[in-house]
Amino acid sequence: MEGCTFNQAKDMVKRLVIEKGFPHDESALLQKLLWAFVELGEAADAYKKGEDWNVVNEELIDVIFYILDFMGLVEDTQGVEVDVDKLFLDKWERNMRRPERYGQKRNI
Asked: So what's the pLDDT on residue 81?
């Protein structure tokens, strides 16, 4: 498959979750967020251990899968349309209008 939008990716993850029998009901919402956090920790651990970049990046893609899974589940259980493409572009534009190093008081 060539490139896809965030919204298409969200639908693809939803299909994967349903076809593979993973939880897809309201009770799974918190679980999706927690697994995204776990995968982010795995990415940080892989980076810390000097793992190959492919390993680090694969863990980061897992984070994105869980986030998109959460957003798709919100749509299906809460009746809320989540336009991920619009959310991303709106947030990017808002951040581009902010001052340099916004929100950072200390040099890190």
From this structure: 96
Q: pTM here?
A: 0.90
Q: Which residues contact 62 (CB under 8 A, 6 or more apart)?
A: 39, 42, 43
Contact 26, 85 (CB under 8 A): no
Q: What is the pLDDT of residues 12-68, one digit of tens each?
A: 999 999 999 999 999 999 999 999 999 999 999 999 999 999 999 999 999 999 999
CB neighbour list of residue 66: distance below 8 Å, 6 or more residues apart: 32, 33, 35, 36, 39
Is the distance from CB of 71 to CB of 82 less than 8 angstroms? yes
Fill in the amino acid letter for 105: K
Q: Compute the distance between CA of residue 38 and CA of residue 24 in angstroms, rounded to an integer.
A: 19
Q: Which residue has the tokens 């957003």?
A: 71
Contacts of 47 by beta carbon, 8 Å cutoff, 6+ apart:
56
**pLDDT score of 106:** 73
